[in-house]
Amino acid sequence: MRPIAAPTTMKKISSALALVSLVFCAACGSNGIGGFIGTGNFSNSSLNGTYVYQVTGWAFGTGNAVQYSEAGIFTANGSGTITSATDDVAEETTGGVSTATATGTYHVGSDGRGFVTLNFPGGGSTNLDITLVSSSKMLMIAGDNANATGIGEKQTSTVLPTTATAFVFKQHSVSTTQDFSTVGQFTLAPDGGVTGSADVNRGGTINGGAGTASPLTLTTPSSFSAPDATGRGTAKLVENSGTTNFYYYIVDANNIRLLTSDTGVVGLGRVEAQTGGPFSVDPLSGKSFAFGSRADDNGGLGAANTVGSFTASGGAIDSGSLDMVQDDNSFTNIALNAGGTYSPVAANGRTLVALDTAIPSTLQQAFWMVSPSRAFFLTTSDSNDVGKIEDGTADQQQGTFSNSTVTGQYAFAMDGFDDQAGAFIDRVGWIQWDGSGGLIWNEDANSSGLLNSPGPLSGSYSVGSNGRATATVNSLSYANNDIVFYLVSGSDAYMLENDPGVEINGVMSKQSQ
What we know:
Elements: E1 48-60, E2 65-77, E3 81-91, E4 97-108, E5 113-119, E6 125-134, E7 137-142, E8 146-154, E9 165-175, E10 180-188, E11 194-202, E12 205-206, E13 216-218, E14 223-224, E15 232-239, E16 242-252, E17 255-260, E18 265-273, E19 287-296, E20 304-313, E21 316-326, E22 329-335, E23 340-342, E24 350-357, E25 361-371, E26 374-382, E27 389-396, E28 407-418, E29 423-434, E30 438-447, E31 450-452, E32 457-463, E33 468-473, E34 483-487, E35 492-499, E36 502-510
Antiparallel strand pairs: 1-2, 1-8, 2-3, 3-4, 4-5, 5-6, 6-7, 7-8, 9-10, 9-18, 10-11, 11-12, 11-13, 14-15, 15-16, 16-17, 17-18, 19-20, 19-27, 20-21, 21-22, 21-23, 23-24, 24-25, 25-26, 26-27, 28-29, 28-36, 29-30, 30-31, 30-32, 32-33, 33-34, 34-35, 35-36
């Protein structure tokens, strides 16, 4: 990455997570598949046009680590050259965001794996390891002395809507003083004015101490400035518990991405146009949703990583299950009891969901419907871990599920830390599923700033009827069936490495070849 200052502090890291040599499990086995080549028809021409990108994670200095976020816009010419880029970087120990322009190079192999390098006129570079899902979307990890993961998306618009448009958004930020998440809905007026409401968790306090009875109101001067020619601008969201400033990046008419720009704060966010509202018909009833979320807790690295699914009907959560690694403790295939509930969905898409689990724990979440089949959510209460700051995404499950549901090659990215190995771990690459219980896993992995490619690894998998899949990857897994997937469909899934002391999660999407 391009550092904006030398890191001077270490925040939220146990002594076991000091900088180490590459010691994670995937590099130590011998069950690779020599000479195996992935499938695909990708090439440099697959990356052609302008892309918005976001990554967040940890940058390493001399014996120190500091959280950072990086976002921007680059243009690829279809033949290996980055002709222009604008890159924004924020680190929690420095004074705000540093912005630089760049040019660079990139490469895409036939299987969709490759790299993007941004070179800055003042020296330094940002190196990103990528795997393409399609020519419009790529998953990425940092390839520098850093651990970070993110996404790149093709830009098709550089202007804000010219009519009042409803959006749902979520953002997650950390700082040296307080971590916080915000999930909500707003209407963006043609003049950039913002009206709406949101649920906010600041340091474990929900909505300024008011709880979940009602969300906070977004007040003046909440606004979006006019974007520049690249689709980049500034935004501000103001509510009673505080003000958050952002840089924003337009992806298309329905999607905007955010980088928190307040001094000493590191964070990213997503803004998606709301469809299907106002919600007069229950959008949850009779459906199953798969979800994934991540949490901090103002004192521990990676407080929780959770994936799961639930089935809802008429105000009740009828069934479901989840997998979670929380404060180094692993919970596997935990059933959701039938006592779960959700409140009537408001016209703006907000509903309060209570998942009654067998941990025992009650997870209370504020869902904001992006559409009848998608939601952003904020965890407002967890009786098993009071005070964590958690947010995530849920998507309606489509189709039926069995081993044959996952067939072909899928891009994936995961990130987090591995206390057993004493290292931060990021992974990007692809998984080939044969449709009958066998898989091949090929990754580039960054372990505490050191990049490694262990080569294709063999494995096995099993898919349950609720879309929960488990996999064992030879030379990577600590235990059988420790890689868990909750399938949204035959094309997408939320992922978790469910081992004690290993808090690594991610996403998977089928490649378009």
